[in-house]
Amino acid sequence: MTALLETAPDLAGRAVEARKLVVDMAASPRGCHLGGSLSVLDILIAALHRASLDDGTEVVLSKGHAAAGLYAALHVSGILAENPAPFYGQPGHPYTGHPGPKVPGVRFPTGSLGHGVPYAAGWALARRIGGQGGLGIAIAGDGELQEGLVWETCQVAAAQRLGNFVLVVDRNGGQNDGLVRDISPLPNLAERFAAFGFETAEVDGHDLTALGEVLGGDRAGAVRPLAVIADTVKGKGVPPVEGKAGSHYVTIDAARAAKWKRMIR
Hints:
Order of helices and strands: HHHEHHEHEEEHHEHEH
């Protein structure tokens, strides 16, 4: 855990560069899921850094529509050598609107919401059965929690005492059709996970130090899975779209992209 915390300033620099790449992808002919990619970026960078300890930890972006954020995070983390932004959505390149295993650093394809959560839980179970270390980390959106498969997996994870399974919720309050609170509210979310037998933690999803603390342990002796509720801002880092439902999917021109990138700090 100490190594993760010591490198937090470097991770913050990665986050700035990753946000600029996501804006570049929004300026592609197809645009991208901008708001959710920006909200989840810090979580992805912290989780990928946790996985860089090379102990068998696997990170699964269950909210696969935030693929632009994943590609950017993989690149700034040194896992994906090629800059994905110029090739995003282009024929002949693997950087599609939902990630698949043709992209270095992506083991499981995700896109249909809810599916990445059991992938990560299955990974955690396989590591435990094999007597190996490492975590299965799933990163889901709060709107994604409307999928029953998420809660079925939570039930199994608790029953199997998967202390090496971690579910991080990118709670940005938005989804495709509007605000989560207006569509299917999720009050007392930590209590819900606790009722399923999870340990719980609530953190600022843009605080890389806090994320490093909660993801940093090996959880070798844990018998309860962990749910991390990370409060985030949709469109984080780009003031004109922060917190706005309209940032869910965005296509912009090069001039606007350049203007937005100058705002990112």
